[in-house]
Amino acid sequence: MDVLIHLFVGLHIIGIASLLGGFLTQMKAMGRGTARFVPAMLHGALTMLVTGVVLVGLNQADDQSVNNIKIGVKLALLIVILGLVYVKRDDEKVEKGLFGLVGLLTTANIFIAVLWT
What's the pLDDT tens digit per position in 60-114? Predict the structure, then answer.
């Protein structure tokens, strides 16, 4: 079971890397006001959602404790991120504030995962 959990943790990290990497590649464009949500951001957020749900299930099946409040906060942030990226994915450019909000929520999600113990 540990190998399976570690596999999904790795996939979860790949998802966050895709989401954050897509954001970071558009930082210069954000300064010019021409940033857009790239497909990697949507795919990364979806990967995070699927692998996160699987991880919660695997950890509970392995009788490990799961902090449901932490998972709920992370899920709420991810749903907001997914909603914004999904709705605006076809727009030629996204407002700076909205694009920055996705980056901020992504970063907050990372810090919640790492620091909330």
Answer: 999 999 999 999 999 999 999 999 999 999 999 999 999 999 999 999 999 999 9
Token code pair at residue 11: 């996939």
Give the position of tokens 């990226």. 85
Tokens representing 108 are: 């907050």
- Residue-wise DSSP of the chain: -HHHHHHHHHHHHHHHHHHHHHHHHTHHHHHHT-----HHHHHHHHHHHHHHHHHHHHHHHTT----HHHHHHHHHHHHHHHHHHHHTTT-S---HHHHHHHHHHHHHHHHHHHH--
In the structure encoding, which two tokens stand for residue 20, read together? 């954050």
Q: Which of 86, 11, 76 is nearest to 50 (CA)?
A: 11
Structure-block tokens of residue 91? 């727009």
Q: What is the pTM of this model?
A: 0.93
